Amino acid sequence: MMENEYYSMDIDIVYEKLQSSPAGLSTDEVESRKKKYGINVLEEKKPKSKARVFLEQFQDILVMILIASAIISLFTGGLESTIVIFFVISLNATLGTIQYFKAEKSLKSLKSLSSPTTKVIRNGMETRIQSSEVIVGDVVVLETGDIISADIRLIKQVNLEINESSLTGESLSVEKNANIVLKKDLPIAEQKNMAFSSSLVTEGRGLGIVVAVGMNTEIGKIAKALKETKKDKTPLQDSLDNFSKNLAIIIISICLIVFGLSLYRHVKLLDALMFAVALAVAAIPEALSSIVTIVLALGTQKMAVEKAIVKELKAVEGLGCITVICTDKTGTITQNKMSVREILVNNKIKGVDDVTFNSQEEEYLLACSILCNNANLKNNKKVSTEEALLKMTNIDIEHFKEKYKRIDEVPFESNRKLMSTLNFYKGKNIMFTKGAFDILINRCSGMINNGEIVRMTSDILFDLKMKSKLMSESGLRVIALSYKDVQSKRKINISDENNLIFIGLVGMIDPPKQETKRAISDSYIAGIKPIMITGDNKITALAIAKEVGIFKDGDNILTGVELEKLSENELDKIIFSTSVYARVTPRDKIRIVTALQRNNQVVAFVGDGVNDAPAIKKANIGISMGDGGTEVSKDASSIILIDDNYSTIIKAVRNGRNIYDNIQNAIRFLISGNAAGILSVLYTSLLALPIPFAPVHLLFINLLTDSLPAIAIGMEPMKEDLIKQKPRKPKESLISKRVFLKISFEGILIAFFTILSYHIGLETNQYAARTCVFLTLCSARLFHSFNCRSRHSIIKDKVKNKVMYLSFLLGMILLNLVIFVPFLQPIFKVWALTKEQIIKCYIFSISPTIIIQTILLIKESFWKSK
Questions:
Q1: Are strands 603-607 and 324-327 parallel, antiparallel or unpaired?
Q2: H/E element holding 419?
Q3: pLDDT tens digit string along 623-653?
Q4: Buried/exposed 811-845: b ≥16 CB within 10 Å, e otherwise
Q5: Could you report the per-residue pLDDT of 739-788, keeping only the tens digit for each?
Q6: What is the CA radius of gyration of the chain?
Q7: Closest Cα partner for 107 from 47, 38, 57, 23?
Q8: Which pLDDT does position 231 carry in this prediction?
């Protein structure tokens, strides 16, 4: 129960108890009230300590194998190897820890960009503030689509319905009544004059006073009792875990085989163990987890710069798999700036500039447009349907409303598609009603024409329907206007919305954004089918869909009514050929998404309204609008578009594909290089030759020829042909058959030339052999990074990544310093090679890249000739 049970108090007592008033709080009171009542924030779980995050970096199975290898080295006299291994994994753990906290910091900044806001009255004026700034005593304005930010005692309401499922589990919205005072000891579900934090305003509007915030709200009390829940792994994390496990099994198997062969050849136990340890260290890509983390972090930051905030990491991976984008029309495809273009009065269609508003019909049309209207003119980026009606003329709107005062109202409801107001207009009580033409026209018994009221005959009705259709087919949204003399009535209700007098039609348009048509075209090129789902009528929806290229010859268009009549099997048969859905309900949207998913489609759903939230949540990738979206749609989504633009979705898809490609290319680089190291160690083991690496060599390889180029590959910019790739299958392995074959071929190729260099050095001694292997393998991997950055040759896809050049130059400089500087040679266990050996090693190191690039050029020439 609420501590003070405000639902059982009269509103005046609540004002007195909380020392507030209808004018709201003053700015001076805010800080003192925060100290007294607390802040409006739910306590979050305690953040991980740096020590815990650091230790978690060692949980990877490959790192555990390295730790085991280090321990074996320690007890077999290989102290140097132990130090090297622990240095490498500790450095990677440090990098991982730093990146974790950088990601947390980025997430906090991204959250601030999409944090919810609340409209309050302060200093007697309406203002919008961050929901976290709401305090006890604030007077809050509630509107359809708002997520309520605190517990509120309602002051007044108009047709207010609130969904309290987050608290009560009841899926149906609750009708609220501010005017009642209830008895004490009532459960939350029966407190009809209260609105609770985290609940959703689904209908109407209201006003209320905040009685509890933060942890003192009903949802806050539940939060105190919640246990910490385990966070699900993303598909990429699962894929990496499976990859690590499989790689670990392969490495352990090879190490055991090598160890067994060594013992079979009567190699000393310690030497056999050292071989196995060297093989494990050479095989494991220690930098893998750090590289993936860095690439994802850089990618999500880039997406944020390009106006797409990623709330869930799995959305980044999922973007590359999308096959269908279901999108709302208004504000996403179009500009969300309605403007009146045409008006029908006296049964004639005129351009808005041709209407003088001097005749009786035009005066009534203007009066209905202004008085049956709850909008206020604002200087913002969006212009709603109601605001567009107010902008038809340059008259003083506030003066007009004051002159013809409103007496009563029947608010707009989505199921009714009508709104009515009762105004004292020119000495009479006139009810003005506006709404959807196909609904309103059936409630009209007459029509005002040339100053006279004429009966609505079947001929007039047919003519009006044809003209409405004509306006709609040109892409206009048509609003029908009417009135009714209710004589001495002071209250109106839904039953009064009959026997209306038809005034006219207003046709307005929300034009497509300039970049939308190109973005839709790019969708098709990317193998993604765009589908428009809108509440607009069929004709208007079709006009816009054709203009932007969503609707093509042979496509279907369905209305919600038509959709409802279809069975699941019937819908499945036409789901791929249907590109536009009009006049749909939230339930219809879920059904469309479910049908697409049932037919093996990966669906992104883009929406901004309360009624979009269920479908956003149901979709594989939920996308909401950051600028014009409701809080509930943002809460349900995994990506938020800051600029509410369809073209940003396509940019996000490209970025998602690029991130995945870069990760896959970085893994290809790491594994192919490590495969060369494995094969080199395996070769020397099988032939009972001296081990090809010193431990310090492995340190150099892991820190420089592994990490630096892999990070550079992860920063590779988007390729021009990326949008032409088909969507990736969701369950596709990171190492697909194609990638595995590439890795195998490249690893064998690099190993072949590395082994050749080994024998060149072995002619001198085992230390020269190790140095030749070290020089060849390091430089070969640096050259190989240019092969792994793209699936094309460097001739076709020129290197534009400056970080790639930088990592290559830095690696080559450091490698040559180790090879040529005398005082560094003993530190890095390097033998002074002859000029002839060095030249041969460099020839061997660049040979794999020359061969791979030659093969790519031949393939490209072949396909070009085709």
A1: parallel
A2: strand 418-425
A3: 887 766 655 566 677 888 887 778 888 888 8
A4: bbebbeebbeeeeebeebbbbebeeebbebbbebb
A5: 889 999 999 999 999 999 999 999 999 999 999 999 999 999 999 999 99
A6: 35
A7: 47
A8: 43
Question: How many other CB atoms sit within 10 Å of the CB of residue 622?
Answer: 28
Indicate the helix (H) or strand (E) that contains 70.
Answer: helix 61-75
Compute the residue count for the chain.
Answer: 866
- Return the closest-CA partner of residue 62 out of 746, 781, 706: 706
Contacts of 101 (CB under 8 A, 6+ apart): 50, 53
Buried b (16+ CB within 10 A) or exposed e, 43-74: eeeeeeeeeebbeebeebbbbebbeebbebbe
The pLDDT value recorded for residue 184 is 83
Give the position of tokens 């608010």. 411
**Amino acid identity, residue 209?**
I
Would the pLDDT of 153 be above 80?
yes
**Is the distance from CB of 342 to CB of 471 less than 8 angstroms?**
yes
DSSP state at residue 286: T
Known active-site residue 328:
yes
User: Catalytic: which of 138, 146, 328, 608?
Assistant: 328
Structure tokens at 456: 């609505």
Cα 555 from Cα 563, distance rounded (Å): 15
Q: Could you tell me which residues come within 8 angstroms of residue 794 by beta carbon, excluding any fewer than 6 positions away?
A: 786, 853
Q: Let me know: does 182 contact 6? Beta carbons within 8 Å.
A: no
Dihedral sign (CA 492, 494, 496, 501): positive
Report the alpha-carbon distance of residue 320 to residue 338 in Å, rounded.
34
- Give the span between the Cα atoms of 28 and 156, in whole angstroms: 26
Burial class (CB in 10 A: 0-12, 13-18, 19+), 733: middle
Residue 855 tokens read as 């093969």
Of the candidates 303, 332, 322, the residue with the CA atom closest to the CA atom of residue 651: 303
Spatial distance between the Cα atoms of 748 and 756, rounded to a whole number of angstroms: 12
Spatial distance between the Cα atoms of 190 and 387, rounded to a whole number of angstroms: 37
User: b vs e for 155-174, b when ≥16 Cβ sit within 10 Å of the residue's Cβ?
Assistant: bebebbbbbbeebbeeeebb
**Cα separation, 713 vs 797, whole angstroms:** 14
Tokens describing residue 441: 């026209």
The helix (run of H) or strand (run of E) holding residue 256 is helix 235-264
Tell me the DSSP string of 350-395.
EEGGG--S-SHHHHHHHHHHHHS-------SS-B-HHHHHHTTS-S
Question: 66 and 281 in contact (C-beta within 8 Å)?
Answer: yes
Whether 658 contacts 299, CB under 8 Å: yes
Predicted local distance difference test score (pLDDT) of residue 379: 52
Q: 350: which residues sit within 8 A by CB, 6+ positions away?
A: 342, 343, 344
CB atoms near residue 453 (< 10 Å):
13
Judged by DSSP in three states, 335 sits in: coil
Beta bridge partners of 418: 413, 435
User: How many CB atoms sit inside 10 A of residue 547's CB?
Assistant: 17
* Per-residue pLDDT at 246 exceeds 90: no
pTM comes to 0.68
Name the amino acid, one letter, at 113: L
Q: What is the pLDDT of the chain when averaged over all its residues?
A: 84
